[in-house]
Write a structure and sequence with these properties.
This protein is of the alpha/beta class. It has eight helices and seven strands, in the order ββαααβαβαβααβαβ. The protein has a five-stranded parallel sheet. It has a two-stranded antiparallel sheet with strand order 2-3. Helix 3 packs across helix 5. The two termini are 15 Å apart.
């Protein structure tokens, strides 16, 4: 194994128990923005109008719903010298950007890919090929970990090894 590629939400960042704040009822627009089909600024303008809160206030609320998966993060820090590290995130870049800033993810991970920025999302095979290209490795040299079976299946179909994450002890 030359690289370990992880999902962000559900593997690196976990939703705090009991925490879910529905801030915007238009899930279709939200999903389109995570795939890069709708500009994030347009989505945030609509969310601000709907909630009466600023984008920064909303990002802080949403960020507080999540916590860093400390056991996984510590494992990655201890073993960083053994392999390259990458993240593939299906989500809004502004939300991922907050985590990159707060948790300094860019200091640990070699490549961080976001679906909204790339206009490709998991399980599309193109996003897996893209991270391999940026890490300068072949899919066969990667292990991909995600909390969704369909995303793992897509990675495995390209030759990666894949695991569905449930908790640190199964990691």
């Amino acid at each position: 194994m030359k690289a370990l590629i992880l999902d962000y939400g559900g593997v690196i960042a976990l939703r705090k128990p009991g925490e879910f704040i529905p801030i915007f009822p238009d899930f279709e627009s939200w999903d389109k923005a995570t795939r890069g089909e709708v500009p994030e600024d347009l989505l945030w303008n609509r969310v601000e109008e709907h909630t009466g809160k600023t984008k920064e206030e909303l990002l802080n609320i949403l960020f507080r719903e999540r916590e860093l998966n400390q056991p996984v993060f510590d494992f990655l820090k201890r073993n960083k010298h053994k392999f390259k590290l990458g993240i593939i995130n299906n989500g809004l870049y502004s939300m991922l950007g907050k985590a990159i800033e707060e948790w300094r993810l860019d200091e640990l991970f070699d490549v961080i890919i976001n679906s909204a920025r790339e206009k490709i999302s998991k399980p599309n095979p193109k996003i897996f090929r893209l991270i391999c290209k940026r890490l300068n490795i072949k899919p066969q040299d990667c292990v991909f970990i995600d909390d969704k079976q369909k995303h793992v299946n897509a990675a495995v179909s390209l030759g990666m090894k894949g695991f569905v994450y449930t908790d640190f002890f199964s990691f």
